[in-house]
Specification:
Helix content: 25-40%
CATH topology of the largest domain: Aminopeptidase
Distance between the termini: 31 Å
Structural class: alpha/beta
Low-confidence stretches: none
CATH architecture of the largest domain: 3-Layer(aba) Sandwich
Mean pLDDT: 97
Number of domains: 2
Radius of gyration: 24 Å
Number of helices: 16
Shape: elongated
CATH class of the largest domain: Alpha Beta
Largest sheet: 8 strands, mixed
Strand order of the largest sheet: 7-8-10-9-13-17-14-15
Strand content: 15-25%
Length: 486
């Protein structure tokens, strides 16, 4: 646990291993950078004149053992143009500086951002400073990242500091769960982790085991789970921050803790990162933690459908017809299109629990990555006004999200000759959308937005602001959505 505190100490007197000061690309130095420049006899000015410092976003220039500064190192961090500094820019900038410094063990680091930041921007910067120093090296003897012992923030209001810590803890929780190997993170162990979080945050918790799932007629989810020795779970987290009787916002996450593809087996390369197929559920758990600790005035229910998709003599088969919880029958034509089968039953539980607004998150299709790339998630909806709220929350947090169409013609592609619907469309085309049209069959017409996070949820390589692996994307978006929807 990193100890985080505010400080009013002058940047030149701050007794830490490193200080981070900032500069814009289109304005002069921030006050802290001016103080460093003066104390060092104009080092920053000379570096800027030599074009070593430009102020572009995420630029990092390190000055070692500067004369006149108590700190052993100064990092000059570019923030880009002043008018463009929003939550996303601040988060990535602070995380970039943090990641750079975390390459070595640091007892303490001081952050000196502009003192006139809006509260939500400062909160995002604090969050980033506590995310960038954590890596995916959970099982490495020789670590690549070293979280700091202490972080000092200058000119940051107590509320922004506290909220930033909560958000960072929740993003890092999601990242850690996604980064765990599937031998450690399976349906049962995820449920144990959810129980720990629920106790920590005061969330009401239900965990449905295989028998309860069978009693609840979750035939679609249970079919996917049949091939694994790991029994499935449904985790239901309930947060009551709004008025009694207020219909809850439902956050639904796909939690396939490992996806072999089932009988429609993936290649070895295709399986390498399939521990990340539970990122939707991990995102929901991280967001529920933050919503509860922030004490947001809204009722929220979080549901995580948890299975392994494996092969055995009892695996569900191509040609099987499944009966989902809402009574619809599903012809299985690809066992690697399993996430939608899991979500089908979980969405129906959300409907039964009275949800009037739903967001589901899933690493659902490679087709979405083909369409939008690795850095952008796809949004699909049955209610434009509700989707607009989701898109706005994502934009405010700087988490790229793009809406894809849901024309009724796509629904024709999942009609089956032997059942109500089939679990894939006709051929390769529009696969992200036909998957969403499948899910739409299980939301009973309630306002619903589906987020296909297959691209940004798991990074194949590092970004300047974050290591590879689980990214924690859309935890902050869900929290912002809960703030605005309350």
């Amino acid at each position: 646990m990193i100890h985080v505190q505010s400080t009013s100490q002058l940047v030149t007197k701050c007794d830490v291993d490193a200080v981070v000061v900032t500069t814009y690309a289109d304005k002069g130095w921030d006050a802290a950078a001016v103080a460093v420049d003066k104390a060092t006899g104009g080092v920053l000015t000379r570096l800027k004149e030599a074009k070593e410092i430009s102020g572009k976003a995420n630029e990092l220039v390190t000055i070692l053992a500067p004369a006149g500064i108590v700190a052993r190192q100064v990092v000059v961090l570019g923030l880009g143009d002043a008018a463009a500094l929003d939550r996303g820019v601040a988060y990535r900038a602070a995380s970039s500086a943090s990641r750079l410094l975390a390459a070595k063990e640091r007892r303490s680091v001081g952050f000196y951002f502009p003192s006139d930041l809006a509260a939500e921007v400062a909160e995002a910067a604090v969050c980033g400073s506590l995310v960038g120093c954590h890596g995916q090296d959970l099982y490495r003897a020789q670590k690549a990242r070293f979280p700091f012992g202490e972080v000092h923030w200058a000119g940051c209001a107590d509320a922004a500091l506290a909220n930033g810590q909560i958000l960072a803890g929740s993003v890092n929780l999601t990242r850690r769960l996604v980064n765990e190997p599937p031998s450690e993170m399976h349906p049962e162990s995820f449920a144990v982790e959810a129980a720990r979080v629920a106790q920590e945050c005061g969330l009401a918790l239900e965990i449905w085991d295989r028998d309860r799932l069978a009693a609840e007629r979750c035939g679609s989810l249970l079919a996917v789970a049949r091939g694994s020795v790991r029994p499935p779970r449904l985790v239901i987290l309930n947060y009551q921050g709004g008025p009694a009787g207020q219909a809850p916002l439902a956050l639904v996450g796909k939690g396939v803790t490992f996806d072999s593809g089932g009988l429609s087996i993936k290649t070895s390369d295709g399986m390498k990162t399939m521990k990340c197929d539970m990122a939707g559920a991990a995102t929901v758990l991280g967001a529920m933690r933050a919503i509860a600790l922030l004490k947001l005035p809204i009722n929220v229910i979080g549901l995580c459908g948890l299975v392994e998709n494996m092969l055995s003599g009892d695996s569900y088969k191509l040609g099987d017809v499944l009966k989902a919880r809402n009574g619809k029958t599903i012809e299985v034509l690809n066992t690697d299109a399993e996430g939608r089968l899991v979500l089908a039953d979980v969405l129906d539980v959300a409907i039964e629990r009275g949800a009037t607004r739903i967001v589901d998150l899933a690493t659902l299709t490679g087709a979405c990555v083909v369409a939008l790339g690795n850095d952008v998630a796809g949004a699909m909806t049955n209610d434009q006004a509700w989707c607009d709220q989701v898109l706005k929350a994502a934009a405010q947090c700087g988490e790229p999200l793009w809406q894809l169409p849901m024309f009724k013609e796509y629904g024709e592609l999942i009609k089956s000759e032997v059942a109500d619907i089939k679990n894939i469309g006709d051929g390769r085309w529009g696969g992200a959308i036909t998957a969403a049209k499948f899910l739409e069959e299980f939301v009973a017409g309630r306002p619903w937005t589906h987020l296909d996070i297959a691209g940004p949820a798991f990074l194949e390589g590092a970004k300047p602001w974050i290591d590879g692996g689980g990214s924690g994307s859309f935890v902050r978006t869900l929290v912002e959505l809960a703030r605005s929807a309350g």
